[in-house]
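Hi there, hope your week has been kind to you so far. Please have a think about how the structure follows from the sequence. I've dropped the whole record in just underneath, so have a look:

_____
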Amino acid sequence: MVRLHSILPVDASYDAGVPEPVELPLVQSQRSERADAARNRLAILRTAERMLLERGIDSITMDGLACEARVGKGTLFRRFGDRASLFHALLDESERRLQEGFIRGPAPLGPGAPPAERLVAFGHALLRLTADRGDLLLAAMPSAPRLRYQSPVHAAYRTHVGSLLSELAPDDADYLADVLLASLAPELVIHQLHTGMTIERLMDSWEQLVGRLARPAGRG
């Protein structure tokens, strides 16, 4: 399973079962630095979320964010690297919830429903996410298109869609997984929404598309 990173400040490197070194003051200093780094990260993300809601995505610059979050610019770049990585961190929690939903959530998004119903539910959930956070999704995309297909998020989505398609269209599952995900790409969905299509129409069309794949061959 491909795991997504959470925006929560979790430090998985510390093992409470390992004996502490003799130099206790040094250990305490290291823990304090980790706690400070976690607080800085959370402050940056909360400030970026507030700026996004209040002023829109174009208002967020690395310089302005560092100032409003009251952290050094070097701290900001060490934490996130660039603007796209920052935006991806803001999306992380929404994407993690979607992944948790199709891995172990209730049906039909999660296990327990037929594959066609699960595929419909996945598309609907991703369409809603794009409608809600489209500008952020676009801003978080890597500059090189091929890098998008190497991201953990895309890998998780493709694995899930491919697994469902292996039951519906086993001979073409790999190809169809790419084709179906392309129809849910943020730039396409946002274009469709901006040119008059409603989210309800997109969801209905997705359901019809999946229905055609699920229909036995030779039946009209």
Q: What stands out?
A: Residues 24-55 form the longest helix (32 residues).
